[in-house]
Amino acid sequence: MKESPKWYVEKRKRAQEMLKSAKPAKYGPDIDLDVFDTEAPQHEKVDEITELSEAVRDASRVVGTRDDERHRSGTYFQHDNDVVYLKCTEGLKKNLPGGLVVLNTDDAIRIYPWLERYWFRQLSMGLDKYATYVAANSVGGAFVWAKEGVNVGYPLQACLYLGTDKAVQVPHNFIIAEPGSKVHIITGCTVNPECETAAHIAATEIHVKEGAEVTLSMIHSWGQNFHVRPRMGATVEKNGTLNMNYVLLNPVKSIQMYPTVILKGQGARASFRNLILSRKKSNIDVGSSIIFSAEGTKGEIVSRAVIMDESIIDMRGMLRGNKPKTHGHLECRALLLSDEAIARAHPSLDGRSKETEMTHEAAVGKIADEQLYYLMTRGLSESEATSLIVRGFLDADIPGLPPELQAEINKIVSMTAEEVM
Amino acid sequence: MALLEIKDLHVEVGGKEILKGVNLEIGKGEVHILLGPNASGKTTLVMTLLGMPTYKVSKGDIIFDGKSIVNLSIDQRAREGIGFAFQFPPAISGVKLRDIIRLCGGKEPWDPSKETEERFATEALGNVGLPPNFRDRDLNVGFSGGEKKRSELAQIFAMKPKLMVLDEPDSGVDIDSLKLIGGRVDSFLKETRGSLLLITHHRHILQYMDSDLAHVMCDGKIVVSDYPENILSKIEEKGYCAYVDVCPTLMKEEHKKLIHE
Description:
The complex is a heterodimer of chains A (421) and B (261).
Chain A: H1 6-19, H2 54-62, E1 74-79, E2 82-88, H3 90-95, E3 100-104, H4 105-111, H5 129-137, E4 142-146, E5 156-162, E6 168-169, E7 172-177, E8 182-191, E9 198-208, E10 213-221, E11 226-236, E12 241-248, E13 254-257, E14 260-263, E15 269-278, E16 283-292, E17 298-307, E18 312-321, E19 326-336, E20 342-351, E21 356-365, H6 369-376, H7 382-394, H8 403-420
Parallel strand pairs in A: 1-5, 4-7, 5-8, 6-9, 7-9, 8-10, 9-11, 10-12, 11-13, 11-14, 12-15, 13-16, 14-16, 15-17, 16-18, 17-19, 18-20, 19-21
Antiparallel strand pairs in A: 1-2, 3-4
Helix pairs in contact in A: 1-5, 6-7, 7-8
Chain B: E1 4-13, E2 16-26, E3 31-35, H1 42-50, E4 55-64, E5 67-68, H2 74-80, E6 82-85, E7 92-96, H3 97-104, H4 120-127, E8 138-139, H5 145-159, E9 163-167, H6 175-192, E10 195-199, E11 213-218, E12 221-226, H7 228-238, H8 248-260
Parallel strand pairs in B: 3-10, 3-11, 6-9, 9-10
Antiparallel strand pairs in B: 1-2, 1-4, 4-5, 7-8, 11-12
Helix pairs in contact in B: 3-4, 3-5, 4-5, 5-6
């Protein structure tokens, strides 16, 4: 294997220096990264997903990974910090030879010298200590490169599984969509249920070029003592589209993320769909922001959260209209099912052109008695009615969400509604 | 034995007595009309019958199909056979009309992997003159007044209740809807031998259905019960003032009006 390029070695060295004085993130509790171990055990590569243990595959299914790879164009599978399986399907290779490149980021950096121009360009490595940590210590991550004009068809699935106690997963992901290409990536992050505590610190950089369309669906299912800090940045060029879907299913100790999309070219579009089940003692701080830096750009953020048990959630959203003829809308709704939980919405609009139009609506509240009683007059019990209303509330219409995942969301919501009663 | 027997019912809302001793009996297969000026207690009576929590029974009893239901929850009463069509049903986004109709009929929500084409709700909607695409609409979201009334009926019919309670199904609907609603209710009652308590202000809907008895509520009591035709013609001629002799509240209102004139 080729050695890492010089630029990379030097930049990582600098990041390691920076890490000594790196500042905590603006939001979310500060976590001590020294307690986690980057030297997780090595995991063997497999030739087929089915060779992975039943437990690993069970966990991956919950976050939308299909082990039969049906209706998928390829699979990236990471166990702790090892890429154990990485393949494009035969169908994809036949129909679009070389059209989609999927690699372990560490390999991509060795193979493509031009990656220097993409490395920590969509987000600053000095953003906070987590970004710097990834710059200094990243291992693996998915590198996805759709070539010009290629429509990949079925989604590519990426599963990141954390299976070792006190381990820290540090992937650096890239999505580069060349002009006119179209790609959908389903990323599922999941854990070994027997794993006590661990951390996931990641960087994802997305570059959507002219007329390209990228859909990234992220599904998270963590454990109750896990800390999660993904850093994400994206730019969208002329007439490009970026759709970001996020689903959080299970309790987590703390998660904080605030992806930023810059609409850089005329007619660029971005949409965020966030679906959050805030359970147990989770501390969740999730935001999305869109910066409209070219004329005629459009963007939308829709967030729905169901807040249960003793969880705390902060939902942020920011739209900044820098240029004329820009339109943005922010919608944030939180349904509180517990008196011990806290839900806060922080919508923010920032207009810097007199021809920009940025709007928002936010609501935090409990289920309306009127709706509950109405359904009960139809013979549904209180918990059945609650479950139906919550499911309806979460039905935010995420395009391209795998049906298995929709079923999983429904199952968890019904179960939780019964617990709440 | 009557299907519904309301005995000396006293009801408080927020500590204030609204119903002051209501007595009402509805037999199997009978259609009763409930009339009365605004704030006379009609809504309170219906909400209490349904079991809405803010309506507290301080005295009296409600016997349905042979047993007291005052301590049953809303859904238990629905399962005993009381079906209520709301005048202003709430909108619930994300909840599909087809699934509610199916749940009303004791079926699971629609699962396309088990049943490629949804039939049960589609048929129920067709019966009340709503097109098939309504099955995929969110419950009452963006429905017109007439569409809400029809959707309410489709749900209630699916429940096959022993007693239907309809709250002004004729308000704010055009003549075609009125005819359809009246006709469907009438044939449903005849098919199922069900009973009906109908709240209305107008006689028009009664052209399309048979009715047995009408009651006038005033100041928390039923003050007059008679054949619907007798009561309605009196009210249409003189207004509720026709019953000034049995309702002191109306007397006061009448005096006020006279003074103003």
